[in-house]
Description:
Strands 1-2-3-4 form a 4-stranded antiparallel sheet. The chain has 4 helices and 4 strands. It has a single domain, classed as GTP Cyclohydrolase I, domain 2. The radius of gyration is 16 Å and the shape is elongated. It is α+β, with helices and mostly antiparallel strands and 120 residues long.
Amino acid sequence: MSKILLENMEFFAYHGCFKEEQIIGxxxxxxxxxETDTQKAELSDHLKDTVNYQEVYNxxxxxxxxxxxxxxxxGRRILDAVMEKFDGxxxxxxxxxxxxxxxxxxxxCVSLEMERSADV
Length: 120
């Protein structure tokens, strides 16, 4: 097993419970950890034998672009979409961070981390 890490992907999106957040938008960071068997790709050196990182990024981007009130909803959609689209994934972990959330004080971010394992 190997881990493929897509780290600190930056997106601008319109998630939040407040009406203003869904109009003004905010900066989000997404990290994804993919556990998969990379042995075939290690030997072949062919992209078709592994999880295509660009396609994973595009899948995450598609889900980030859909407005949600909660990070929980965003995270679930990302896990569902990636797990559904790519074969051979054994385990996924996603972390979605909203930068400088409107909490009434200075805060770097608020984050949600979720995990999912493939049905065996």
